[in-house]
Request: fold
Amino acid sequence: MRMLVDRSRDGTDLPFDLDSVKLHLRVVGTEEDAAITNIGHAACAEIEHFAQIALLTQTITVTIVRPVLEGCLRLPIGPLIDVTSVAIRIDGTAFDAFSVVGGIRPLVHWETHLAPPAPAEMVVIYEAGFGTDTADIPPDLAQALMDQAALHYDGRSPMDAKSLTTSPHMARIGARYRGVQV
Reply:
């Protein structure tokens, strides 16, 4: 079984408040807004990848080659707020013999086992994210994003590779959302 995941942002809103990030970085003025916006996007991507989440609503497309329909399938990106957004196609045909558990770590439970031959491909499409607005992002994740942005901002001067990694706050918060015990 091989799983490929594609994300598509649904809106154009920034996943952070630029003024809050600038305040956190102690930056006054607008001269560095473009650079700070890029840093914010980089920090957002790192949090989403590390924690396996979507901060703002995204369409997630999961393609599974040679799927196994036994037990359940853990969806790779959370949170799943609207369980009715899940659509599944098996070998190009709509499939509806499943139920969904939403939340941070969403699951698809199979209501039936497919008889042989095994399907060649399954595509699962769903909406993941905390909402469509920056205000929907939990405060701990917003703070983790700002801390990671500060690490990037402060690391603009030459640093060794070990110094520019993950902020401790992002690692702690990201692990919690990912389901890791720290």
User: Anything to note?
Assistant: The first strand starts at residue 2 and ends at 9. The radius of gyration is 19 Å. Strands lie at 2-9, 58-65, 72-74, 87-90, 93-95, 98-101, 107-110, 121-128. DSSP finds four helices and eight strands in the chain.
